[in-house]
Amino acid sequence: MYTTQNVRGEHLLWLTPILYICLTSINAPIQNFIVFNEGNFYLFNFSLALVIFLLIIALPFYIHIYLRKQDLRNIVISWVHIVPTLLIILAIISIYAYAPPIEISWKNAPLSNPFFLQWQIYNKVATTLFEVLIVIQTIYIIYGLSKINQLRIEQYRNNVSEFDPYSFEESEVMIHPSYKYTWIPKPAEPIN
Questions:
Q1: 24: nearest Cα among 84, 82, 83, 92
Q2: Is residue 190 part of a domain?
Q3: In terms of residue numbers, what domain contains 115?
């Protein structure tokens, strides 16, 4: 059963990649894709890509939940984080799922293959988008941690102001703290 606590925008961060990657793995013409980065080729499948994306968005997701529970959530900043994150993840998966297949041996071919050159452009766009995704998550984590830290500082200040050991009423005079609770008998009244 869905409640207002369960249906939140931050749940799109994990739900959308799971659904899209599952559908893409069924419909895509390939089951594995190659990522070329800094002179090395890496072979991924969609399940591994899903795990990587979920690990990347795990901490921002929990920051969203914590800020919502503490009533510190700014709806604009929250959606400015959620929407680009989802669009970038969907774009990266789409690029690798529907880019033309290549062979690694084409990189070392004496004549440049037009399919390989086209794939290199797709790969460069996807790796750049992945770097942007990491930057967005880092910025949101810094924002969330600063809001949490600000809340902790305010709570600490409130706790300190509630208990101030040196605040006295105007009528009290501090002679020595140990004398404050000492009982001093009143002098006897004269008998008439």
A1: 92
A2: no
A3: 9-162
Residue 185 domain-assigned (yes or no): no
Q: Within 10 Å of residue 36's Cβ, how many Cβ atoms?
A: 18
Q: What are phi and psi of 34, to 5 degrees?
A: -110, 135
Identify the CA nearest to 34 among candidates 45, 24, 23: 45
Q: Is residue 172 situated within a structural domain?
A: no
DSSP three-state, residue 144: helix
Question: Do residues 138 and 145 touch, judged by C-beta distance below 8 A?
Answer: no
- Averaged pLDDT, 72-77: 88
How far apart (Å, rounded) are the C-alpha atoms in residues 92 and 127?
8
Q: Tell me: the pLDDT tens digits for 130-172?
A: 999 999 999 999 999 999 998 888 888 777 665 555 555 544 5
The two tokens of residue 66 are 């914590």
Read off the tokens for 37.
Answer: 């980065």
For strands 32-37 and 40-45, give the pairing. Answer: antiparallel
Q: Is the four-CA dihedral 25, 31, 37, 42 of positive or negative sign?
A: positive
**Residue 121 domain-assigned (yes or no):** yes
